[in-house]
């Protein structure tokens, strides 16, 4: 089997470690690293010495680099764009990152229209709708193949929950679905659905529960503050992004069944989701069963606690605006 993965924004804080992680996946036979900064060629030369199968090449804008990086790619991962500084929201990145994601999506539509596309660039709540609108305009949109990567919220949920119950090394034990979006109150970790269940000493203690959910929702800020102007989460994001991509690869190319990961996906016309959350949204993060076509099935959000149901209302309030903002960025004619 041959499998080409393209990583766009490969010289960045996320791109470099994510490229290294992708390089060590034995299923990947070709790894195309694209960035607008020339050091990407050095990053590719460096990573290419790792003795795994993926033949690794760096591309910049020169010599039709984006075209060559994307042609034949079956999976495209996008961490291209600017990160936050203290005091900024993810939405403050819109002005720069919206155009970056639009242009990369246009190139994907042209050079690898059938690829699975995993968007990391923030604000995810708007950049995924932007990519979808570009694909729709190009006639290549397949809702089963477009994913907003929200896995870092899932990763933080298990780590922070284990810490909150005084079992910090127990993090890998807890699988906690996160639904909604990827920004502040739109991030809704369903602690009541943790497998195995979290203890009553947490679930029954409103103050502790509130503090934990707030920490997960604003986990990105912890890193932004600690990096003090030098960027946002990169290493944990590379871990989470790689985790999602390798799960997708295992389901889409290696025949693995029963692979379920939350992701921010196209949910328009999903009547059962709309009746669960009480509103019809074009995009929402839900647990997704992955398969050969990408999305095989969207799984239900499931039963929410009373507190989670109140948080869902806040998430819905913000999400619809972020989605429309992304859609209008493409649909509104520029003067
Ligand atoms: N989905 C998530 O959970 C997370 C998303 N992010 C987001 O990921 C993005 C990247 O973050 P970092 O890697 O820390 O930023 P960075 O600034 O370190 O790296 C971004 C890279 O993108 C490149 N780039 C800019 N325009 C480009 C274009 N048109 N084509 C290709 N490459 C381009 C830059 O040259 C740079 O190398 C940010 O928007 C950040 O907010 C960050 C953490 C978590
Ligand atoms: O906080 C940020 O800006 C980066 C991000 O999305 C995260 O760490 O979850």
Shape: globular
Q: For the largest sheet, list the strands in their spatial order.
A: 3-2-1-4-5-6
What class would the helix/strand composition place it in?
alpha/beta
CATH superfamily of the largest domain: Lactate dehydrogenase/glycoside hydrolase, family 4, C-terminal
Rounded radius of gyration (Å): 19 Å
CATH topology of the largest domain: L-2-Hydroxyisocaproate Dehydrogenase, Chain A, domain 2
Our measurement of the CA-to-CA distance between the termini, rounded to an integer number of angstroms, reads 47 Å
Strands, count: 11
Q: Secondary-structure element order, as H and E?
A: EHEHEHEHEHEHEEHHHHEHEEH
CATH class placement of the largest domain:
Alpha Beta
Number of helical stretches of at least 4 residues: 12
Beta-strand proportion? 15-25%
- Name the poorly predicted regions: none
Helix proportion range:
40-55%
Overall pLDDT, averaged? 97
Number of domains: 2
CATH second-level architecture of the largest domain:
Alpha-Beta Complex
List of distinct ligands in this structure: 1,4-dihydronicotinamide adenine dinucleotide, oxaloacetate ion
